[in-house]
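fyi for ur records
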Amino acid sequence: MSQTKTDALSLGAAVVMLLLPQRPPLLLVDRIEGYSRAPRPTLHAARAVSVNEPFFSAELPTPPVLPRSLALEGIVQAANLLQIFVAVQRELEAIGRSATELVSALRNADVGYRLEPGFTPGLGEDILAAITMAGPARTGAIGASQLRFLRNVFPGDVLTYEVRLIREGADVQHFEAEVEVRGQPVAQGMFSLSKVEGILR
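which gave:
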């Protein structure tokens, strides 16, 4: 993995569920670990794979293997998170607010969900409510994909995602992704998603 430098974040599953419309067992990102806007918007995320996942059926051959369709879905969800970060920060700036308000709101929400000291009631509440109200429109649908899967993923593995926004047009955004398990590449390549914007409307 190229390990593009990002600002460290530690946002757990509750914040991921606030941002994404997917729900378990098809929520395939557990946490957000880093984000940076420059030089290219980049997000680091992770997903721990448990043998108790419902898609590991007892009737299937042993050892159980994560279906590649679900590995792809996890990559897309990581990119969806990046789309939300990029869109909301741009929209905050367009209305004269600071782009940093998004990360502050998410960090505060994570503290609140964990019942830790330091939570500020109401901080960024309008931003988080707008994201939730946007519904499925806050995530782009996958178009072209040139991803290569290099090895299988098994229960007990932790997938680490790095997704980068590399270019965009009027209606589409293009991403690079690298996925690893224990430092070994699992998948890499490029793909496109329909563009996300207008979340704060």
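The longest helix spans residues 68-94. thats all i got for now
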